[in-house]
């Protein structure tokens, strides 16, 4: 659905509602033979939905704040050699979630953002799945009979994560349990660069630029 169509839909919804408290993005597709559909469903569609709904939730735009929940996968945290396109799309969800949860936004719009990474779940694995490359197809076929959590168990842990969550948190819901992810930063801004980005003083910015020449 295009963003213009989404806005029209939510405009109609808001006629019947005073505000939006929670937005849950749960659509998912694993089709390694259709990369465009996989990326559009798991990442692009989710981002367009968030971009469309955020103005209705933004405190500075008349909203009441709230919570955005992105339901994603454990292979958005660790790579999958079998479902490469699916994994890439889920890594994107984590990156988008962490970026949007930054205090730069949260302190102004009052909208918290979190993600829940689900482990293998029966409703997902109980169907034909194709590997990105034929070398992984044996693994994909075996996955249908692999022990995994029930849909009900996973759903309950998603609810629990929502009840416990704070802005920016990432959770794993797997094997009937719930675990909060310890986030890691690989790149740290240089002090001079960070000072420049946070500065509102034109002189300081000019000094930074001249110092690079």
TrEMBL record:
Nucleotide-binding among keywords: no
Superkingdom assignment: Eukaryota
Cellular component GO terms held in the UniProt record: cytoplasm
Ranges in coiled-coil conformation: none
Membership in a protein family: Belongs to the short-chain dehydrogenases/reductases (SDR) family.
Keywords recorded for this protein, A-Z: Oxidoreductase
Family matches, as InterPro entries: ADH-rel, NAD(P)-bd_dom_sf, Sc_DH/Rdtase_CS, SDR_fam
Name listed for the protein in its UniProt record: Alcohol dehydrogenase-related 31 kDa protein
Keyword Ligase in record: no
Gene Ontology molecular function, alphabetical: oxidoreductase activity
Pfam families, per the entry: adh_short
């Amino acid at each position: 659905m295009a963003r213009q169509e989404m806005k029209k839909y939510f405009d109609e919804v808001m006629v019947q509602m005073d505000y939006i408290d929670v937005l849950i993005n749960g659509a998912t597709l694993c089709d390694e033979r259709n990369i465009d559909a996989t990326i559009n469903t798991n990442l692009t569609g989710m981002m367009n939905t968030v971009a469309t709904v955020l103005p209705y939730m933004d405190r500075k735009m008349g909203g009441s704040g709230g919570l955005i929940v992105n339901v994603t996968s454990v292979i958005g945290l660790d790579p999958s050699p079998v479902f490469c396109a699916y994994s890439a799309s889920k890594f994107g969800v984590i990156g988008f979630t962490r970026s949007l949860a930054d205090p730069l936004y949260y302190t102004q719009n009052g909208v918290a953002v979190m993600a829940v990474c689900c482990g293998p779940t029966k409703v997902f694995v109980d169907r034909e799945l194709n590997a990105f490359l034929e070398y992984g197809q044996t693994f994909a076929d075996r996955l249908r009979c692999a022990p995994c959590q029930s849909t009900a168990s996973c759903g309950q842990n998603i609810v629990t994560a929502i009840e416990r969550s704070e802005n920016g948190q990432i959770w794993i819901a797997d094997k009937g349990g719930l675990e909060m992810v310890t986030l890691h930063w690989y790149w740290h801004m240089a002090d001079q660069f960070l000072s420049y980005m946070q500065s509102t003083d034109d002189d300081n910015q000019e000094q930074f630029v001249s110092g690079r020449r």
